[in-house]
Amino acid sequence: MHFVFVHGWGFNAGVWADMGAYLPVSAITLIDLGFVAGGPASHEDWPDDAIAVGHSLGLMWLLKEGKGSFKGLVSIQGFDRFSPHVPEGRVAALKRGLARDPGGTMAAFWRSCGAPDFAPTEALNVARLDEGLDWLMHWDAEAAKKRLQCPILTLAARDDVIVPPAMSEAVWGTENIVWSPDGGHILPLRHPDWCARHVLEFANSVPS
Q1: Prediction pTM value
Q2: Which long-range contacts (CB under 8 A, 24 or more apart) does 193-198 make?
Q3: Whether 75 contacts 155, CB under 8 Å
Q4: Backbone phi, then psi, for 87, in 5-degree steps?
Q5: Domain 3-144+164-205, second-level architecture
Q6: Residue-wise pLDDT tens for the chain (208 aa)?
């Protein structure tokens, strides 16, 4: 059993550290998208029979860049499109804030996610963060999601203000979501044991 993990915008692969403690470490591949320095080493390749786990933007990245190289897909507060569910103007405002005050903008974002003080300002890759916001504004992986032939598990939090419940339901369908009553927008950090348990149960249910 192999897992590949991709984090969301504004974070690094360190978001999986606590969750990884509940999984077989030798069978984990971490993808780091380069937004924030200081996370674990990133690897570019993984076996085609992996269980792919994406948090937030990381799920859309897997749909667009993963080329279907996984036998099961787990969305943790993820989506196939950010806009139009969230108005582009909100993302554009975040881009302006990032250009004007990167540290303050990211500190406010992390607080809203439920992960205050995630990293120091000097760890930020502002250009890459700005690029990631472009992905949120323009990427559309809905067709890729519809083409998937593999099983899918969706985890979400009722108090998520970045990807609110209505957005998760619109993307995945109400009946397909396993809900946590809380956790903000950072379930892997806030409830790593809960996430790991559901991921393992799902992985064990996927045909080999």
Answers
A1: 0.96
A2: 193/19, 193/22, 195/19, 195/76, 195/155, 196/19, 196/21, 196/22, 196/23, 197/22, 198/74, 198/153, 198/155
A3: yes
A4: -55, 140
A5: 3-Layer(aba) Sandwich (3.40)
A6: 899 999 999 999 999 999 988 887 668 999 999 999 999 888 888 888 999 999 999 999 999 999 888 999 999 999 999 988 999 999 999 999 999 999 999 999 999 999 999 999 999 999 999 999 999 999 999 999 999 999 999 999 999 999 999 999 999 999 999 999 999 999 999 999 999 999 999 999 998 7
